[in-house]
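Q: Joint fold for the lines below.
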Amino acid sequence: MSSPCRRAVSLLLFAAFALAACDREDREPRGAPVGESGPGATVQGTLYAGEPTPPDPRRQEYEGNAYHISQGKQLYVWFNCGTCHANGGGDIGPPLMDDVWIYGDSLENIFATIVQGRPNGMPSFRNKIPETQIWEIAAYVRSMSGQTPTAASPGRNDSLNAKPAEQRTPKAEPKNSNPGGPGVEGRQ
Amino acid sequence: MERSPHFTADLAHLPTSAHGPRSTTWWGTLGFILIEATAFALAAAAYFYLMGQTETWPPGQSPPDWLWGTVQLVLMLASLWPNLWTDRVAHADDLRRVRIGLVVMSAIGLLTLVVRAFEFGALNCRWDDNAYGSIVWVLLGLHATHLITDVGDTLVLTVLMFTKHVEPRRFTDVTDNCVYWNFVVCAWVPLWALLYVVPRLV
Amino acid sequence: MSARDTSARDSARFIRRDGPALGEAETHARLERTWATPPGLWGWLSSVDHKQVGRRYIVTAFVFFLLAGLLALAMRMQLAGPNQTLLTPDRYNQIFTMHGTTMMFLFAVPVMEAFAIYLVPLMVGTRAIAFPRLNAFSYWVYLAGGVMLWVAFILNVGPDVGWFSYVPLAGPQFGPGKRTDFWAQMVTFTEVAALAVAVEIIVTVLKQRAPGMSLNRIPLFVWGQLVTSSMVVFAMPAVMVSSSMLIMDRLIGTHFFNPAEGGDALLWQHLFWFFGHPEVYIIFLPATGFVSSILPVFARRPIFGYTALVLALFATGFLGFGLWVHHMFVTGLPHLGNSFYTAASMAIAIPSGIQIFCWLATLWDGRPRFATPLLFIIGFIVIFVLGGLSGIMLASVPIDSQVHDTYFVVAHFHYVLIGGAVFPLFGAVYYWFPKFTGRMLSERAGAWNFALFFVGFNLAFFPMHILGLIGMPRRIYSYPAGLGWDDLNLLATAGALILAAGVLVFLGNVWHSLKYGLVAGDNPWGAGTLEWATSSPPPSVNFVHIPVVTGREPLWEEPNGLAAVSGLRVDQRELLLTTVVDAEPDVREPSPMPSIWPLLSAIAVTVLFIGSIFTPWAVVWGSIPLAVGLIGWFWPKSPPDTPEPVVE
Amino acid sequence: MRARAPMALLCIGGLAGCERVRHGVQSALDPAGHQAGRIADLWWLFLAVLAAVYALVLILLLVAAFRPRRRGRVPVGSAFPQEAPTERRLTRVLVAWAVGTTAIILTLTGFSYAVDRDILSLGHRAELTVEITAKQWWWQVKYDDPVPNRSFETANEIRLPVGVPVRVILKAQDVIHSFWVPNLHGKTDLIPGRVNETVIVANREGRFRGQCAEFCGFQHANMALDVVAVPRAEFDAWRESQLAPAVAPSDEQSQEGQRVFLTSACVMCHTIRGTTAASRVGPDLTHIATRPSLAAGTLPYSKGNLAGWIADPQRIKPGSQMPVTGLSADQLQSVLAYLDGLK
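A: Joint structure:
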């Protein structure tokens, strides 16, 4: 009876969400298969991030996935990333919510930075943090400067309100995202 | 039932429109007023509940500045007089006076919206500061939506009253609109006390 | 043909009122022209006929009932044995959330309103519901909300935090993504629809009753709907306020439920249950109306204790707001307060007990005829009373502290809701189907339907009482072996399948009877209330003549036809308004013509609500098309109505 | 007839249950504690009274439906001739019925209130304090002691001396959970931003199972804990052993295991007292080998289950915070040897 127009409306709504929703809302707790080292490993080998490598196959599972990003946010707290980077504003370590990407702004770059560590204090977390979790942290780090769709970025935490949540952080267009590592403009 | 029934009365003489409780729209308006009053009451209850959760109120901030909220209060209470007048002349189906009343009420309505904008500026808190800020913004916003809808309604009625659509029923609409405005004003008095007085008492 | 007839017909042409002057056939034809919904898709989309809208509501609600039922079967399959992996925890959480949400928000409440939309105007003897365009609007909004939720679910964005969406689990930190936002907006959709219908029903009952239907002659079903609608008016705002707070916490960073910034998780529970408990009675009271309408017809005796039943309705409606805290007995609230809510919760057993007794007395003193509707009513008493009694156990703080959030509670509220609402609902379908469609449902299939339903239900849900007492919590996607839960769960799953078979029989019965069912007359059951005074299905004008009511069962008291009043216009849609208490004729008020604007406004609302899930600015730009829609809706159509004809 | 057949089924269902409730490690009807006992008694009382009421209603229903009636069928549609006396008699019965309902309600409320007071009174006699913090999806258990260095932490396990009331402080770190050990007491919620409290006491020795009773996400189903009631002496001994730091690995494999543990992902989340592992994200593993179960009651403790759990926690408990660490086979073996030695 009301089926014709139900079909109409549902088609309309499909059009609206179908694009984004599915991967963005997927909740695959296992994360990507472990053990084997995909192209991520080739990144790990080099000192300088992001030299032309094919995008990692695991990327699209983590990038812009609401669940993994929120897990990453939790791990960011649990693993005390804040002791150096604060809530993203930076302290001992560089700020993460600005538009400066010293070692590249791609998910693979950030992954490599966490895995390998970087000069001037960023330790290497290779074998310390499982790769699945590093991908999650990397995905979260991108959301801190609004690089991820707001529909996937985390909302506020149930804690003291330090800064507006990632979902409300305006996107900072990456500038001097330098795949060649720190040059003259390096770290101010 | 082809057989014509036995008719006990002929109602041709009944009027086709009536003011107040005799019309359905009046009861409809009353129903929605009850719904919105309940929403206001619950939001106010939430305000007191959150107040009970924290020892200092408002926490950290200073209470909203007196000026604009009080201006709003005075303005609204003052608007009751032209509003009730419009209601009376609408009951009398006096088109000329109703037009005057509606123009005046539209002007006052738009004015209250301007004042409301300043009120938000003078709250001394943001909605995302803490629970106090959140509930204060929601209370003021909730009332603002009522202002907007009623002002919109008034403007449309004003336009209608200057076009060919003037009918007996329009006057009923005007009276119902007046009833609704009374509600918006009555709702503001306790809200004003809640937003501006209570934080200074505790 | 002679000159006299022609002149008679000529003069007749100018008559624009019903009455002796105009022949029956002519009156009927002219009213049909005035009240009929235009044909075609456009007419279908712009219809404001309460019977059409009511039918759509009923069908849509039953579609959601079937969908949610399938989810229930999926859960029973997963729980049929220990450590099953049919469903992942993520899927299971979405499924039980969708089941509860759909059953409560998209089936139970709307289907009761749907019956009110269809039946109340007929039962009070008026030609249309109050605010017919608002009525059409409410249906479109309800449909959009339900479809949105289910599309989201299909796209794996279904809510997964329970139909109660407790924070912080549903909050911004622990509910990532958009899943809970869709839940919160679905609530907004359905509440807007429900509130609109509530207002229509209240006004229809208070102002549009047929002459002579004074308060003490209102049918009990109408009383039930009146009390229910009043409860909706005071209960639903609570969930709209709380779900708005939730979505604001999630989207714009407010702190209503953030303890670190002065918020509190229990604020959600207070607001939600202040709505959530009355909700149960909003579902149950209309069902009591079904019982009170059906029982006298099949006991062939006027209902016993009319006044007591009406008072019981009001008492329940009032007490229903006084016991939300019994959903929060284990949250560590002060015990003194809790014992007050114990008393209040138990007190509600008194009006319920009175209702049960009045129904039993009616049956006892009558000459029962065991047609399918009566079977479902008997099933209702057997099941609902058990659910009510386990409810008394839940009202006790110590007992509740053990069984709260276990399968005991699952059993309890399914006994109350399926027994208390769905059984009467099925009885009501069998009872009013002839009025809706003009055909009878098969009695034989009906008996099978009832038997499978009754046996399946008790097999499925009675074991859950025991499961809860021996420690099985709610909302678990799996359980280990060796806790003694295995075969009771298997039994429950078997029962669920039998129950499903009952539903299939029902569907088959409806489908078959629509085509081949016995043709029903105006009043196949020999009932006494006004909806049976018109043809089946009723004409678009409902009543060719506004009847005059002389008692509670007018058709029983006036065996040779009801008296009527004349003088309403036949060339325009006109309603008769009567006074609130005595239903004295008072005003002839016009009733609006069909319009597409309610649909357009509903679409605007849908865009606004769905948009605001993704950006708060949608509230701003979305309000512009909405404003356009509403202005178009209320803008008077020119030319203005034809002038009032002189009184013949 | 129609009403009777299902009743029979109900009874069968009932009996099937009764068999089972005699002894269950997670049953409210197999009380092993003072409160659970009082609540069970109250429940049986309610059941007796309400079952009688239910029976009465069913009998009335059957009589009303099937009582013999005077012959002569009533023409459909016409109202049944009402005699005023019947109406009056029924009204009198209705009043009696309402009064009866009220009386029953009041009595039951009275009993319920009395039991409630009695249960609360136990709080004053608590000798021991345990602080529980619920996390997604496990229980952090802290035994408090006025002497700071005599407090210690464990997880998913509570041991308590028989007959000694234990005060349990209830906190939540993330979402709302509910602490429920049916054999001992009813449940109490753990709510972020609030501190709740309950008291449990075991009247007899035994091992009981508790489970989270408030929906808390992915693994709500696998968030259980063991409550072990032992004689006082045994409890004190256990307590001393728990206070001690972890035993140093003796054989070579375990030493290797400790090295792996301290240099791999394990150390990011877990504490083992006496080593450098001191993260408080996951459960304290200092004496993991003494616990009855793994992963919050998901698996009974055994070296094999531990292996399975570490190798692929996401298969056993999808969505839990324990990640797949990707240890090599012999790394895994040595870690197992090490952990299994943590008695």
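Q: Anything notable?
A: DSSP finds nine helices and twelve strands in chain D. Chains D and B do not touch (no CB pair under 8 Å).
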